[in-house]
Write a structure and sequence with these properties.
The chain has helices spanning about 1-25, 25-60, 85-100, 115-125, 130, 140-145, 155-170, 175-180, 180-195, 205-220, 225-250, 255, 270-295, 300-305, 310-320, 330-360, 360-375, 390-405, 435-440, 455-460, 485-505, and strands at about 100-105, 110-115, 200-205, 420, 425, 430-435, 505-510, 520, 525, 530-535. By secondary structure, it is mostly helical. Helices cover about 55% and strands about 10% of the residues. The chain is built from 21 helices and 10 strands. Bound molecules: protoporphyrin IX containing FE (HEM). Protoporphyrin IX containing FE binds near residues 347 and 481. Keywords: Heme, Iron, Membrane, Metal-binding, Monooxygenase, Oxidoreductase, Transmembrane, Transmembrane helix. This is Cytochrome P450. GO terms for molecular function: heme binding; iron ion binding; monooxygenase activity; oxidoreductase activity, acting on paired donors, with incorporation or reduction of molecular oxygen.
């Protein structure tokens, strides 16, 4: 509109002037000037209206005024065309310009990015109840049985019940202790496999992922599956989890422009449905098998299961004695998927970074091994009971999660009502990203923030645990929506790491250059997978059997 008017005005002027030169008549000259004034006025008014409309959308005064500042976007697509692939770094750069809280429009969706610990505290502690919701993308809704898992269920009685089942019943020390032998079996198998590959390069992330998946499958449904079936399902699940995260990490046009959702232009919804149909068939077969085992005779089923696994705990909730089901079948399956997907890739990513940092800092690996030799000894295998006696190794994992937080922007939080953060309004339904990656590198809070120094977690114990009470350190989030699997993540990662370091020496391939760059996706992974070579450390061959 504005461009048409300017064009017309220029043409009017040029046509008018040429006519003026030609005719040079006074009366006609007067009418030209009047017309010019009218056109100019229309142009000025139109310009003023356009500027007003534009500024009222982006300014910091009035109703929308209290929105945080942020870069200007384009009509319809907002800031989408300007996003850079490494969002955590791009958001950190923007925070240098616009401050610790700024806004963006992705399509017509308002997003706010927070990059300071004090504002993170306001969101995750002071106003936690308002911000304790997530906005599920379409792929997540499909894959979580219609959003029936913990992560996507809105705050309310269902979410509380699911969280209670997972945290209190499945992740309690008592129930994790009860299935320690299910983890031990898998760790010992891993040691045997690595020993068989001595001197050959190993893709460490792959080894860790396969071991974790095996461990989690063991804990989920233990002895229900025959060994060959377990291997087949393990291989397929691995592929599926990869695809699941790939789809969740993709920008889906249907999420940005819901009006286009029925068209599913990228086929993401269709692919997500295929994945969940496949996983559902497996869950059905395992659950039916377990119910059959229980029907044959409770005693037999209990004897078959070496320990109480998660499926047994979940089925107990499904079949409440009063006949009322506390858990629906959809919720039960969604929980199984939460543990499987939430527990594997996150922990794998963390441990691959630990090894990468140790390759960069060999003295860290040496100190960790010295600690293990003192606590475990060279003639014993690492046991879970050793973990609490390994403060240095624990600090190595903490420092890794500081420099490489697996979910660097957390899962976007979504306020259930408008709320003031800092001096700005965050409207209901905004997607709020917490840039934990930036907070973990804040020089005000951390000395030499880009250095890998595990000792900092031994020196000052300023609440730098995983509970999210110190807002300078939030690898698992904080508040109501803090990670529900911390205790399992800690046990699995420490046990596996301690065993791999105690049993083997690890080296980069000859002439290989270490690359520590990351790649932003749903998780902050190593851009180039780490390949390292093991050699045995322990003198007794029996310890590898
Ligand atoms: C190193 C390993 C892990 C890391 C770094 C990690 C990190 C996180 C983070 C950052 C969140 C989101 C918090 C937020 O947005 O505020 C989260 C949520 C969650 N995690 Fe983990 N996680 C890990 C392992 C696990 C494991 C092993 C499980 C499964 C047992 C698990 C299950 C969950 C669940 C169910 C949620 C959703 C909680 C809710 O919305 O109430 N995570 N995790």
């Amino acid at each position: 509109m504005i461009f048409i008017l300017i064009n017309k005005f220029i043409r009017f002027l040029s046509d008018g002037w040429s006519w003026w030169w030609q005719a040079n008549g006074e009366a006609d000259g007067k009418s030209f000037i009047i017309q010019a004034i009218v056109m100019l006025s229309i142009l000025i008014i139109t310009l003023a209206i356009t500027i007003y409309v534009f500024l009222s959308k982006t300014s910091t005064k009035g109703e929308t005024s209290s929105l945080p500042p942020g870069p200007r976007g384009l009509p319809l697509v907002g800031n989408l065309p300007f996003l850079k692939p490494d969002l955590h770094r791009y958001f950190s750069q923007l925070s240098q310009i616009y401050g610790p809280i700024f806004k963006l429009h992705l399509g017509n969706k308002l997003c706010v990015v927070v990059s300071s610990s004090s504002l993170a505290k306001e969101i995750l502690k002071d106003h936690d109840a308002i911000f304790a919701n997530h906005n599920p993308p379409i792929a997540a809704l499909v894959m979580a049985y219609g959003g029936n898992d913990i992560l996507w269920t809105p705050l309310g009685p269902d979410w509380r019940m699911l969280r209670k089942v997972l945290v209190r019943d499945m992740m309690s020390n008592k129930s994790l202790d009860a299935c320690f032998n299910l983890r031990r079996e898998v760790i010992q198998q891993m040691v045997r496999e690595v020993y068989a590959k001595i001197g050959t390069p190993i893709h460490i992330g792959e080894l860790i992922f396969i071991t974790l998946l095996d461990m989690i499958m063991n804990m989920l449904w233990g002895g229900t599956l025959k060994p060959e079936e377990k291997t087949r399902i393990g291989v397929e699940f691995r592929k599926t989890i990869g695809e699941l995260f790939f789809l969740l990490g993709k920008t889906n046009i249907s999420d940005i422009f819901p009006i286009l959702a029925p068209l599913d232009l990228q086929g993401i919804e269709r692919k997500a449905k295929n994945i969940i149909t496949w996983a559902d068939a497996i869950f059905d077969s395992v659950i039916n098998e377990r119910l059959k085992m229980e029907a044959i005779g409770e005693k037999q089923s209990k004897d078959d299961l070496k320990s109480k696994d998660f499926l047994e705990i979940l089925l107990k909730f499904k079949q409440q004695e009063d006949g009322k089901a506390a858990l629906s079948m959809k919720q039960l399956k969604a929980l199984l998927l939460d543990v499987k997907s939430g527990g594997t890739d996150t922990t794998t990513t963390t441990l691959e970074w630990v090894f990468a940092e140790m390759m960069q800092n060999p003295n860290v690996m040496r100190k960790a091994q010295e600690e293990l030799d003192k606590v475990v000894g060279m003639s014993n295998k690492v046991e879970e009971s050793h973990i609490s006696m390994l403060p240095y190794l624990n600090a190595v994992v903490k420092e890794t999660l500081r420099l490489h937080p697996v979910i660097p922007l957390l899962v976007p939080h979504c306020p259930s009502q408008s709320c003031t953060i800092g001096r700005f309004t965050i409207p209901k339904g905004t997607n709020v990203f917490l840039n934990v990656w930036k907070i973990h590198r804040d020089p005000e809070a951390w000395e030499d923030p880009s250095e890998f120094l595990p000792e900092r977690f031994l020196r000052d114990n300023n609440g730098y645990d995983y509970k999210g009470n110190n807002f300078n350190y939030l690898p698992f989030g904080s508040g109501r929506r803090i990670c529900a699997g911390i205790s399992l993540a800690e046990r699995m990662s420490m046990y596996m790491l301690a065993t791999l370091l105690h049993s083997f020496e690890w080296k980069l391939l000859e002439n290989a250059e270490l690359d520590l760059s990351d790649e932003f996706g749903l998780m902050l992974k190593k851009r180039i997978p780490l390949v390292i070579t093991p050699t045995p450390r322990l003198s007794k061959v029996e310890l590898y059997k």
